[in-house]
Recover the amino acids of this structure.
């Protein structure tokens, strides 16, 4: 197969709400199903919205929503920008630690000393959360800039190796016993204090909807960005850096934009992940986490946004079932399955579908046609 | 001004290890002229273009554009100063459509490339510009084809289109007809002639097809082994005995 999936949407007219609904039909249906899911589950099983099997599956989906955004953010780099970074987990873990550290070490102190009131309304907690998220953004931007800086001079494999090295250096730093008091070293930070309404044990449904909105918003925002003038130049950078310079673009600027945007989505995803687990652990920064995102992206289809979402969903389901079926050896089985998928669907599920859509449809019609003929004969 | 110099190289040299690909080349390009550079394979023409367009730094010497020293200026800045370059070996955005290839170049010259929350499709001016170039280079009807799926001749047209979309004042053509069959050549020459002469631009043309060079250029520089061998009008060059023995005779023989 020599074809490669086309990541660029054909140039279309301005977005209107109706054209958006039309183009994103699949994604919107998925979101609608996800909105209804807890209630349907509640109705079918009869267990309360915040207990039992309903609550368990909400948890599964929360992880999925967060990982989907993380995978999409990675795809902005590798799929759209053609930038192979092995340090992307640094943004995810960085966001998580920024959130957990502040919530654990700074917020309680602050809240015991100050009260912010509007009239009689106490908004201290809200302000603290907003402030912490601003710091999460800041930290993610800085991490994005750090990786962008390394890409100025290095290319290809050398660049990939250096990103791996930086990622692992941060991983080791966060595990260092010297900062045990702050970071919890190997164990990480646990029991991150959260307001009751945001506590995933007490109010899982809230966290479910927050992360769902996060996925929804991130998808639309990333879609918009990839279709923007900037997004198009980032793709041009992937295609041909030499020519890009010759027509007047500075590749470094556009790579920097790609790194920062991608890092911000990953960082916020990390912060939400630390809300969901009420913890931040070193393995969130490890290369394994990057490879997870890589696998999700490859599974679903690089250079598409819906691909990484599907990839994240599949890998979530697989982890769940393979563990029960194969026990601790499940990664081995998953590895084999992954190899098969890469061999038979080299452009991932979405990429291969887009390429082969017409073939697949035709095959389906032929298949259906077979039945029709048989019916007529009998 | 009749004889204003737009581009000048002073003692420009480039070595690759032991090989001196461009050897002490001083050349002046007059405004609103078509200046051809000819020479046998390996003479250093493409390397000279790489130095003029900023793809590589020279080993020594300087490049001036409109009296400004641009020796150490990046290719992207040179593009904004008005220097355009097309490649001998087709150098396009393979997985993008022909239109998008050219639209990107048009967008590069505008100020909208960092508008990350706007849709590229809402900047109609770049699309119109790209469509205009598509028609100019003779790719009408092919704009939605992926660049890599275009046949060679159309890739060469796209190669030119990308450069033209930047509206350069000085155009560096590196063997625009490379790999094209003889029937396809006249159309391309006509396009080049049109974009250079009608718009009063300046062009440096590297080309192997002698008949084409002699008919459309004002000045011809002959390079051999990195050095300038001779320079003059097409008439002078054709009648230069030194050039004839060193180079032209062979090529005319080849073409005949
Ligand atoms: N990047 C490079 N590294 C090493 N040697 C190079 C490089 N580029 C060119 N050369 C060498 O420099 C010499 C001049 O090459 P150049 O491509 O400039 O010639 P040219 O005149 O364009 O030839 P042609 O007509 O074949 O295109 C050749 O001997 C070539 O092998
Ligand atoms: Mg050459």
């Amino acid at each position: 197969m020599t074809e490669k999936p086309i990541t660029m949407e054909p140039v279309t007219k301005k977005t209107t709400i109706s054209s958006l609904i039309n183009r994103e039909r699949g994604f919107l249906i998925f979101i609608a199903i996800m909105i209804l899911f807890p209630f349907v589950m509640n109705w079918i099983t009869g267990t309360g919205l915040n207990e039992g099997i309903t609550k368990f599956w909400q948890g599964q989906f929360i992880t999925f929503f967060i990982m989907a955004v993380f995978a999409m953010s990675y795809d902005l780099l590798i799929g759209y920008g053609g930038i192979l970074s092995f340090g992307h987990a640094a943004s995810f873990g960085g966001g998580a630690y920024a959130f957990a550290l502040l919530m654990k070490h700074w917020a309680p102190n602050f809240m015991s000393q100050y009260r912010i009131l509007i009239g009689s309304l106490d908004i201290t907690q809200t302000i603290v959360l907003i402030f912490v998220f601003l710091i999460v953004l800041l930290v993610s931007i800085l991490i994005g800039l750090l990786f962008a800086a390394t890409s100025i001079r290095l290319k290809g494999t050398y660049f990939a190796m250096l990103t791996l090295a930086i990622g692992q250096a941060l991983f080791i730093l966060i595990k260092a016993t010297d900062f045990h008091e702050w970071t919890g070293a190997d164990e990480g930070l646990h029991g991150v204090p959260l307001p009751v309404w945001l506590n995933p044990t007490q109010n899982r449904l809230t966290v479910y909807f927050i992360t769902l909105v996060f996925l929804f918003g991130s998808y639309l925002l990333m879609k918009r960005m990839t279709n923007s003038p900037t997004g198009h130049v980032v793709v041009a950078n992937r295609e041909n850096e030499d020519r890009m310079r010759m027509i007047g673009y500075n590749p470094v600027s556009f790579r920097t934009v790609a790194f920062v945007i991608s890092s911000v989505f990953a960082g916020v995803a990390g912060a939400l992940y630390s809300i969901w687990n009420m913890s931040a652990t070193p393995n969130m920064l490890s290369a394994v986490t990057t490879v997870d995102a890589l696998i999700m992206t490859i599974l679903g289809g690089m250079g598409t946004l819906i691909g990484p979402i599907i990839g994240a969903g599949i890998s979530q389901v697989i982890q769940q079932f393979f563990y029960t079926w194969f026990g601790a050896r499940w990664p081995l089985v998953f590895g084999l399955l992954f190899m098969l998928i890469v061999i038979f669907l080299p452009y991932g599920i979405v990429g291969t579908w887009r390429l082969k859509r017409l073939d697949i449809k035709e095959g389906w019609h032929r298949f259906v046609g077979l039945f029709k003929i048989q019916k007529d004969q009998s | 001004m009749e004889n204003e110099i737009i581009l000048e190289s002073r003692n420009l040299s480039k070595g690759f290890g032991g090989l001196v690909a461009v050897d002490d080349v001083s050349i002046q390009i007059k405004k609103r002229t078509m200046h051809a550079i000819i020479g046998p394979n390996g003479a250093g023409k493409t390397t000279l273009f790489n130095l003029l367009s900023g793809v590589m730094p020279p080993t020594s010497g300087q490049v001036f554009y409109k009296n400004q020293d641009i020796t150490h200026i990046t290719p992207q800045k040179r593009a904004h100063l008005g220097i355009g370059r097309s490649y001998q070996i087709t150098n396009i955005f393979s997985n993008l459509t022909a239109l998008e290839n050219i639209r990107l170049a048009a967008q590069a010259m505008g100020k909208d490339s960092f508008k990350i929350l706007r849709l590229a499709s809402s900047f109609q001016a770049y699309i119109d510009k790209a469509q205009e170039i598509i028609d100019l280079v003779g790719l009408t009807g092919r704009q939605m084809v992926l660049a890599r799926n275009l046949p060679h001749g159309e890739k060469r047209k796209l190669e030119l289109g990308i450069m033209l979309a930047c509206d350069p004042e000085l155009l560096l053509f590196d063997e625009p007809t490379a790999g094209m069959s003889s029937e396809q050549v006249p159309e391309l020459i006509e396009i080049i002639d049109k974009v250079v002469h009608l718009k009063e631009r300046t062009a440096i043309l590297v080309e192997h097809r002698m008949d084409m060079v002699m008919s459309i250029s004002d000045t011809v520089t002959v390079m051999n082994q990195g050095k300038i061998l001779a320079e003059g009008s097409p008439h002078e060059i054709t009648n230069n005995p030194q050039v004839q023995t060193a180079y032209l005779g062979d090529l005319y023989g080849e073409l005949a």
